[in-house]
Amino acid sequence: MDTSKSTVASAEENKKSTGDEARTSLDWAGTYKGILLCADCEGIETELMLHSDNTYMLSTTYLGKKEAAGEKTNGRWKWLDGYNIELEAVKDGPSKYFVTEGRIIQLDREGKRIEGALAEKYVLGKIK
After folding, report:
1. Burial of residue 36 (number of CB atoms within 10 Å: 0-12, 13-18, 19+)
2. How many helices and strands, by DSSP H and E, does the chain display?
3. Angle, CA of 49, 51 and 45, to the nearest 5°
């Protein structure tokens, strides 16, 4: 019997029964920063401020491009469930994130976690 799968299942059931989820148990409001993977540049310097009133400010700069002017987006965000959020004003890129302790993880356009060798290139760390 694979005990690792049963341990994960038990942890998930415990979270469901106790209401223990990012939305209610983490200090998620704050500023997250990092350099995300970019298909045609050196990286996307990203800063995302999540406010407790469900507003946000997203600042991105495409590194290594001559016209690398920064871009800022303000808007509202919403919880999709106890762990995932969506930035409502983002139209031309990924808008969903998984919230965890001290960091948020950018999800793909379908809202799934990116796995494999490049997974850590989609993480923003909390700086304040």
Report:
1. middle
2. 2, 8
3. 5
pLDDT higher than threshold 70 for residue 19:
no
Single out the residue of 49, 41, 45 nearest to residue 104, CA to CA.
Answer: 49
The 10s digit of each residue's pLDDT in 1-16 is: 444 343 334 344 444 4
Split at pLDDT 50, 70, 90, the class of 120 is: very high
Q: H-helix or E-strand containing 16? A: helix 3-18
Q: Which residues contact 64 (CB under 8 A, 6 or more apart)?
A: 41, 42, 43
Average pLDDT over residues 80-103: 91
Q: Which of 80, 125, 75 is nearest to 104 (CA)?
A: 125
Burial of 103 (0-12, 13-18, 19+ CB in 10 A): middle
Average pLDDT, the chain: 84
